[in-house]
């Protein structure tokens, strides 16, 4: 049987192994192995948490239902002869390293960023003897299960791999591997967010950054502040209730994802004026272009003690809805002209004898103290560090968005960094301008291809002594022109690009990565996430043949 | 009751009437009118065709299920008082002008381009007396029903309009208002095509240009040539059977849409080599960049009499599958180097004593004769006229794609024109490059916004004496990076832009058109087509407030 051996060799040369992100250490062989019809996953852990059981059930379901034919001509049907004679894997055994605390996936995923254990080791022998997955935490086991799912293909009714033995020792390069969704400019039902969390978990993302409110709508029902959503949501059907939030954070936690909520302040808050006009400056100001980067204008009266207390109480109440230790208070795009022209703010400043910057400092210290009292570490957008001089705890996380070049300045101030630069990671760019009478292209043209995101270097221009400050990064979807209609198609598989940078480390080659990304996109589709094709199917089935330098 | 009157006035000033495309003649009043609970549509036509009955049933279903709240703050709930007291419309009466032939919508839609009757007149009185829709054809009645559907909103359980009396006299500026879909680079199930036809009909498109095959795959089962699909489709599940074709053309016809099939020749045919390697030059040639604009290379051996006859027979068989009087034989991007390096072609040229251009002329005359024998008028891409010197019947339709500037040169040669210029109408541009190792942006950057398409002038640089040559135009989706996953979101509502240009005429103002386009996108979503948001909902509910010059 010469042919199968040749095919095997080709398959291996072509590197069709569909892992994403790539493990940090990976050895594969060239032996076929199939899953036994009675394949099962055993857990050698006393009192294993229930969310680990659920994760195992999902893995078994994916192994059964992915039904992914290898992305080669013939979709792997030529493997069948070899697979028929191959060994059968009956068991994957999961265990924790001795002495590891038996915590739920959910609890581990919500530990402070940087202290979660995600490493794991996976070994699949070529002979079909028991495969083993070990980790120091159930979260690590979840990451390993996610890897295990990506090893298998189906042809002629057999679930198999052509690359055993497989030895993987894996851990993330950076702990913060995120995706940000804006649910204020356009609304997304809970089911859309849960589907997104599913896809995030399949690529080992760790952090959902939920930009829940903005100037356009206030879709979050906050205990004690229910008027904000009842008057500020787009519709009563477009509100996240406390139960919805519980469902989302539970869904995320079980999938190894922590939810960092953001209530953007003091800018990006115009819609609060619907319920509390007394707290918002320049809500009716015109033209909006003078008072905000986007309509509607309107910002919290940061110099007002009443507004400051209101904001602190609101943030504290939101903080109590979310189990994460991180919470973003925003802080981007503060418009000073809004305050210059607001008589109340001017009166407040005069009464206190403070400058606007001094008032902003008081406002920020007060609101941060409020969420710290609830156990949160604040995250802020870069302007709070680079354009303003507010007092921030030195554990504050700073999110860089204006330009990747700005990370160095944030690092120089010794703050921890999350990379979300518009020039690499903004998923909305390049699809035209949403302003009603401006026929120009988008402000952050061009479209950020996955290849562009893939070239991101988290340590660019950051000194070795500041390297530890980089927590990771995220791709972001601002939703001026997105809704449930294009959520999947604008995000996937593109947003998988950064998670490989932040898990596997930078420097990957997008040309050789492409076949794995195809593989991921196909699995996503089969699991219900509408990841788009990156190439004609002809190319996806013929690695390298659609390269210019082929 | 001062408030409702004020609201009414505002509503009218703001022009919320959600018609798309805009009728050529439109008068509206400011009286409210609701649909009676027993509203019905009567047909005053003896032996009315069944597809008119189906169209009426769809209209009644949309009136019931669109449930579109007006795109204003409050979604029209404040209209309720006025609507309660308004008259009720019980009947819309449809009739044909005396002497009009009673043809089905389907038959009228398949008449030769330029001879179909699409004009109609619609009158809705303010008092609730019978509304009337008259036309010279059932196709005209369909267009009028489509307009009628767009007049109504729902609030508090009432279906109503605030703008009666309505008087519309309407007819298209151009007969060819099209959309092109490439089903070769990636495959689309029949249901996706039918959903696209639905959306096309809602904006009065008349022509589906089906680029069914290309070099990547051959998904069409052609009687007598079934080996092309069985060996050249991506999978047996990715084939359009003759029954599928019948279903698609019937579905289109009933919706007033003619289907122009394209079998692109002699280039863009590499996949034919899977079944007939003898007919394809340079199928294995390398590097592909020398022999084709996209992989895989491979073109019909146009100098071979056998290949020419094969192609003529194939095209004739395809022609018999489609009732349209138009059929495209393609003709774009012919690569001459492929033939220079093909020994068989060189031998054929030598044997016949022809140059390549002369052989192309013979090939084209032969294949066009074959489809003319089946009653088809050929359509070709612009290169057949501008880059080659082939003999074409003077009724040939030429599709301009490389640049909008090229239309003038085609007109100068006295050919009929369909505008499909990449610089205005290519829906795939601006989303990155699909070539595997080229991280550049797309060749036709930037993204073509709906506003850009909307500025298209069909008569630009065309002399008055050639003006009659312009049949219309189409927006096009080449599917290197599209599949069912993003079909709706990449096409809608953008592709509605050109249909307003070609129905209502050019010169529209995109700023004032935007609210109508929002309205259309909302209706599309409620009818199951995932049209994307063009703005935050905050803006969509507040006409003009997200303009820079507001």
UniProtKB/TrEMBL annotation, chains A, B:
GO terms for biological process: carbohydrate metabolic process; glycosaminoglycan metabolic process. Transmembrane segments: none annotated. InterPro entries: Beta_hexosaminidase_sua/sub (IPR025705), GH (IPR017853), Glyco_hydro_20_cat (IPR015883), Hex-like_dom2 (IPR029018), HEX_eukaryotic_N (IPR029019). Residues 19-151 form the Beta-hexosaminidase eukaryotic type N-terminal domain. Gene3D superfamilies: Chitobiase/beta-hexosaminidase domain 2-like (3.30.379.10), Glycosidases (3.20.20.80). Its EC number is 3.2.1.52. GO terms for molecular function: beta-N-acetylhexosaminidase activity. The active site is at 333 (proton donor). CDD domains: GH20_HexA_HexB-like. Residues 1-18 form the signal peptide. Residues 174-505 form the Glycoside hydrolase family 20 catalytic domain. GO terms for cellular component: membrane. Keywords: Glycoprotein, Glycosidase, Hydrolase, Signal. The keyword Repressor does not apply. This is Beta-hexosaminidase.
């Amino acid at each position: 049987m010469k042919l199968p051996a040749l095919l095997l060799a080709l398959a291996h040369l072509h590197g069709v192994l569909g892992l994403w992100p790539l493990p940090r250490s990976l050895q594969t062989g060239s032996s076929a192995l199939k899953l036994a019809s009675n394949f099962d996953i055993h857990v050698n852990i006393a009192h294993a948490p229930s969310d680990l059981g659920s994760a195992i059930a999902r893995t078994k379901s994916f192994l059964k239902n992915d039904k992914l034919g290898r992305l080669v001509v013939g979709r792997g049907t030529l493997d069948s002869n070899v697979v028929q004679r191959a060994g059968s894997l009956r068991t994957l055994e999961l265990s924790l390293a001795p002495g590891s605390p038996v915590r739920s996936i959910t609890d581990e995923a919500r530990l402070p960023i940087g202290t979660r254990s995600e490493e794991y080791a996976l070994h699949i022998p070529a002979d079909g003897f028991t495969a083993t997955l070990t980790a120091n935490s159930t979260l690590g086991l979840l990451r390993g299960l996610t890897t295990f799912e990506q090893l298998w293909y189906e042809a002629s009714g057999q679930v198999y791999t052509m690359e055993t033995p497989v030895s993987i020792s894996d851990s993330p390069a950076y702990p913060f591997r995120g995706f940000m969704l804006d649910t204020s400019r356009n609304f997304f039902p809970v089911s859309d967010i849960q589907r997104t969390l599913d896809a995030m978990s399949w690529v080992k993302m760790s952090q959902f950054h939920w930009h829940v409110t903005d100037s356009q709508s206030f879709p979050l029902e906050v205990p004690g502040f229910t008027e904000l959503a009842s008057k500020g949501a787009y519709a009563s059907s477009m509100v996240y209730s406390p139960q919805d939030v519980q469902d989302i954070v539970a869904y995320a936690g079980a999938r190894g994802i922590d939810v960092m909520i953001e209530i953007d302040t003091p800018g990006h808050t115009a819609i609060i004026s619907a319920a509390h006009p007394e707290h918002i400056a320049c809500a009716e100001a015109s033209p909006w272009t003078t008072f905000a980067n986007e309509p509607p204008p309107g910002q919290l009266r940061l110099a007002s003690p009443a507004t400051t207390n209101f904001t602190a109480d609101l943030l504290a109440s939101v903080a109590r809805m979310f189990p994460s230790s991180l919470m973003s208070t925003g802080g981007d795009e503060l418009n000073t002209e809004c305050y210059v022209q607001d008589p109340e703010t001017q009166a407040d400043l005069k009464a206190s004898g403070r400058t606007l910057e001094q008032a902003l400092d008081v406002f920020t210290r007060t609101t941060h103290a409020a969420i710290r009292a609830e156990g949160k570490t604040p995250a802020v957008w870069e302007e709070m560090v680079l354009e303003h001089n507010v007092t921030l705890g030195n554990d504050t996380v700073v999110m860089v968005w204006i330009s990747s070049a700005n990370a160095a300045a944030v690092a120089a101030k010794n703050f921890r960094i999350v990379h979300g630069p518009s020039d690499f990671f903004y998923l909305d760019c390049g699809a035209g301008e949403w302003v009603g009478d401006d026929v120009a292209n988008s402000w952050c043209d061009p479209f950020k291809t996955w290849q562009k995101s893939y070239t991101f270097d988290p340590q660019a221009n950051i000194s070795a002594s500041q390297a530890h400050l980089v927590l990771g990064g995220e791709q972001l979807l601002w939703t001026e022109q997105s809704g449930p209609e294009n959520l999947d198609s604008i995000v996937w598989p593109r947003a998988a690009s950064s998670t490989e940078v932040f898990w596997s480390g930078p420097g990957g080659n997008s040309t050789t990565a492409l076949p794995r990304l195809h593989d991921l996109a196909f699995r996503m589709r089969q699991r219900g996430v509408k990841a788009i094709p990156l190439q004609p199917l002809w190319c996806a089935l013929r690695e390298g043949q659609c390269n210019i330098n082929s």
